[in-house]
């Protein structure tokens, strides 16, 4: 923390700020300048709350100089975290983790048809919402536990790991039971009760960046989960809200190297929500792999025009196959392979 | 819904889109133009999901032309909703509703000291967080139920109506029991589980706009509450996230006349979170009243430098007194009075 | 400037940064902390360019702690600047300066018809574009010098001071000749050649905030004009670009108290471009006056449906009359009167 | 254009709007719906100005359904525009165009030292500012014509094509004389006088996207240049302004496929300004090539810690060499080669 005094602050005011800092148990370092004095603070183990100082007479502003997160920081843990889901499926290692599937689970038939396609194309994780946070109460809200059961059947049949969203503590308990990875959606990134509950879950958590979350807020949301004891967190960039109107959101790919520098956690990219338009999913997927993401979360639907949600941003199975081929080549340049699960399930032999 | 065809779309493609629209049970109105054809859709009672059409060959884009909300719409209910909290305290009527108090309840002494001051200055509602959503898991998270009990004592002693935040279904149940108005915070504006639970509560709900919520999303979040049967919703503008860095958030006062035009719900303004800086609270409070807001939600603390959160945006009691005087005069221009509760409590006689 | 070292920076690296700072002619103040060292810099009279230090080994980041502007700063000049346009018309004094007129000058008849109306309602300055920066090359671009001549006739006939936009050095020379105040538009706020030319002009400058300008950038743009010797600058908030789509721009009224705190320059508000919608102009005008603005820049048109640009955000004369009455009352609360020019011109006697 | 009537609009109001549309010379297509009527407009060759209709009684809003640009549109010209600079250097073809060099030309020695390095690494175009738009009037503003002469010497010595910025009509005339490509900076993207002048220039124009420009505004700015007769325009994405604070700007890579879909013009990416941080330039360069950009504009400096501007975002020559190797491999996946100029200049033989 650095306290900047006003240009006309008196020596008494500077002294009072220094005394307050010492009272708080820290050390004050006044640095007189030509127009104003700045006071450095050291000796704090947690970030200093500016509220204690900004109200004092003569103080112009307080500037934070250390970051508020600890457990997620690369300074604490130099090696990359690799989330191991078993059966050779890992997120954050040298393989790219490809999570594909429909926006929402609509029926057993739909889920199986899509799972067969994405499995054949090389995905090792399957996505599909059973609980859908929709901006309208009149839109399809998901199949609930029935959807989770279908997802568990998909895993049994295809050997795909299951990623699905929890929206409150009740659904989180069920998702924890049925799925392999618990997704926390962008709109819940600062639902701190849900984050704490996820921090006590026995399964890894996929945490999506909020639409208006700064990098610090994103990492602090992950910190909530780690602080409760769950160290298996996968971050996911899915686009931020800006003035730009040619895509649904603005995919912020620069956050990938920024996260890699500050944190040891893996980070993947969702180009489907990140762009909101089918024709941009493949180019942005290539870019995500090229920038250094650890994987992708992609919406695929075999009949997007009949999808109950987000059909216009879902790839067709053939397009997903093309995506896999293109990112395999891009990945190779960065020495990242496309992950393949051990073994090929019965039902795929004939595909 | 209006479907815009690509410039080179064929007649067959236009025909296929029209057939699809008819299949969905609606009526298609093709309008050929010099460079492209547009197809209007009528006959729908709910908004048409663009997903069903955007994937068809030859379609350039789908444009929504009707709004997705119903119950919150002024078209449905022309008269302003007035939320009546009893004892003459109303939100949305001719009186301005002034909600004041500390960011967080810290102790009985703190709450009573501040309550005496804001009551004396003319506030009729008291705010104070018992459950605090904080971006860091290491920050003070609120006193929980103990804080709610203190708030109930404040009501008994000062006759102030209590507004406090719920962050999940457990806390909502307790807030519903102890408080007069259930606050849903900005970070939970699209926590749809919480909105549904609030929609089944017996108390009015104060819904804050999310940091990156469009007006449509804000009204749809309120729609979730009304759709469950709770029609007593108070909206609250508290600043949006933009690039501007001279305030913590950018207070969007233009949303007040926009809400008044589209909806019958009352809307108040939080100039404390909206600016994040004490010295801007009074000018922006004047502006909020001048633009037509139905009230204010203001942070006041008697010892802001010792506050456990947000001290630097809290007004001192004297400043709040000044604010009340200034907005009384501004309100008079718009024929809005500052609400005063019936009776003056014992403890205020000597103030 | 404060240099933050990386957590694992060596003593040698800290030493090298300190030596570099001394080489640049400044003084280095290293402050070791529990996890990292920060180095304060003093002795600089101009802001230190971070480029000289951010590239050194072990440096995590450089944080600017002093502001880059000088001539516009209130620290330099405590008293408010009042721009005196003669005949009792001042901007920045106790009177509110009301600038009203059409978006574009379209004809002598149109300009005179509107001027008569706004004069009668109490405006003392007349606006109207002769050079129109339009996003499309195919839109009406203004009448050019012919428009300026009409504006000069308006001044002669109605005694209104003329404010009109210059878009390049050629038009600036003409505007300087014909008008009383040279307007620099939002899109040209960082057209530094134009700012320098305006800084050498003999007339006051009205500088509009750019759509994505931070407060620092806005003040630095004004600094360009003052640095060339023209101290008569009037700032104008006209809305910033955000994700919010219910208005054309988001009017940032919090910038008014922020400017008042940091600078001695007057600042007015343009609620017409700030909202882009006629029905929001009056409420936001009230708010602008209530927040402490020194005046308004309002579009008025007697036949907005026939206006060649921006008709839908122009007030009708009757609405402008209502606006003047409402802001007179709001202004009175802040002890600001609505300015009235000395004398009433011939043509108004019969209105 | 589609006119949406209010829910309670009368038949008379609908009729009046239709008559107005016909008066304007267009055709009106009223479409009654269950709650409101929409009116389609056809027969217009240029976009309809909503101002003419939004003011009419009963009109809720006007929605534009056709795009305002013509000459830049792919609908007009299906084939990609390839800007041919001679000597085998092309922008928009199968080769990636790599433009590298310092932010500002500082001296002959500096320019030659960097030119030798970037030439050796494979760049075919050299960048370097002689006129620098700086946010502070007290920052280094460039060497002016002296800088242009140095750039011309660089071309003579190294065979590199020269790209440099013009900031007003005077500098544009000189840039047109000395350079191969005239750059229009982001802050001048809507400096329409400058765009028109560039449209009359004999050299190709590199147009950078403004910090808050929508895609439509970006393309319309290019339309200004084409409308004056200069069809050789290269677009450049360089980051937009958002709330995200981990990079200087937010690089919007999704605009690349969006431009490719709507326009025939080539588009390159500036990862240096787009991120503002050296360590993010290489990953984002890879991503830019992977998403389909036609080239890169990269800042390179051999002594960034002594650079007069933007040193902290400039790559070192070794890093640029690494960038070229990585993008060559990524480019190969998309069948894009890295352009190499014919011949190798004298001075490089010994490098």
Topology of helices and strands:
The structure is a homotetramer of 351-residue chains.
Chain A: E1 2-5, H1 11-23, E2 27-32, E3 37-42, H2 51-54, E4 59-63, E5 83-84, E6 90-91, E7 95-101, H3 108-121, E8 125-127, H4 145-158, E9 161-165, H5 169-178, E10 181-184, H6 192-199, E11 205-208, H7 215-227, E12 233-237, H8 255-262, E13 267-269, H9 271-275, H10 278-291, E14 295-299, H11 317-333, E15 337-338
Parallel strand pairs in A: 7-8, 7-14, 7-15, 8-9, 9-10, 10-11, 11-12, 12-13
Antiparallel strand pairs in A: 1-3, 1-4, 2-3, 5-6
Explain what this protein looks like in three dimensions:
- The structure is a homotetramer of 351-residue chains.
- Chain A is of the alpha/beta class.
- Chain A has two domains: 2-63, Alpha-Beta Plaits; 83-349, TIM Barrel.
- Helices cover 34% and strands 18% of the residues of chain A.
- The first copy, chain A, has eleven helices and 15 strands.
- In chain A, strands 7, 8, 9, 10, 11, 12, 13, 14 and 15 form a nine-stranded parallel β-sheet that branches. A four-stranded antiparallel β-sheet of chain A has the order 2-3-1-4, covered by helices on one side. In chain A, strands 5-6 form a two-stranded antiparallel sheet.
- In chain A, helix 6 packs across helix 7 (215-227) and helix 10 (278-291) runs parallel beside helix 11 (317-333).
- Chain A is elongated, with a radius of gyration of 23 Å.
- Chains in contact: A-B, A-C, A-D, B-C, B-D, C-D.
- At the C-D interface, helix 2, helix 5, helix 6 and helix 7 of C face helix 2, helix 5, helix 6 and helix 7 of D.
């Amino acid at each position: 923390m650095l306290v900047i005094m006003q240009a006309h602050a008196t020596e008494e005011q500077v002294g009072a700020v220094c005394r307050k800092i010492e009272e708080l148990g820290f050390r004050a370092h006044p640095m007189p300048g030509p127009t104003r004095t700045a006071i450095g603070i050291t000796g704090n183990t947690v970030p200093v709350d500016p509220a204690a100082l900004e109200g004092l007479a003569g103080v112009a502003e307080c500037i934070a100089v250390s970051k508020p997160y600890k457990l997620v920081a690369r300074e604490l843990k130099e090696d990359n975290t690799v989330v191991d889901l078993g059966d050779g499926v890992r997120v954050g290692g040298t393989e790219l983790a490809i999570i594909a599937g429909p926006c929402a689970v609509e029926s057993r038939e739909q889920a199986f048809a899509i799972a067969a396609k994405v499995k054949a194309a090389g995905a090792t994780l399957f996505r599909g919402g059973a609980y859908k946070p929709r901006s309208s109460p009149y839109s399809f809200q998901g199949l609930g536990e029935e959807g989770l059961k279908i997802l568990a059947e998909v895993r049994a049949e295809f050997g795909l790991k299951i990623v699905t969203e929890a929206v409150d503590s009740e659904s989180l308990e069920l998702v924890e039971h049925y799925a392999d990875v618990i997704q926390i959606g962008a709109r819940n990134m600062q639902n701190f009760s849900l984050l704490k509950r996820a921090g006590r879950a026995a399964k890894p958590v996929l945490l999506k960046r909020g639409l208006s979350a700064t990098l610090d807020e994103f990492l602090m949301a992950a910190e909530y989960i780690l602080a409760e004891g769950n160290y298996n967190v996968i971050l996911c960039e899915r686009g931020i809200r800006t003035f730009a109107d040619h895509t649904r959101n603005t995919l912020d790919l620069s956050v990938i190297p920024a996260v890699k520098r500050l944190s040891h956690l893996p980070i993947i990219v969702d180009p489907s929500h990140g762009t909101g338009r089918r024709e941009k999913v493949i180019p942005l997927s290539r870019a995500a792999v090229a920038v250094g993401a650890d994987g992708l979360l992609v919406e695929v639907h075999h009949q997007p025009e009949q999808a109950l949600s987000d059909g216009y941003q879902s790839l067709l199975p053939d397009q997903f196959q093309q995506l896999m081929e293109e990112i395999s080549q891009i990945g190779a340049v960065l020495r990242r392979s496309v992950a393949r699960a051990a073994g090929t399930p019965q039902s795929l032999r004939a595909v």
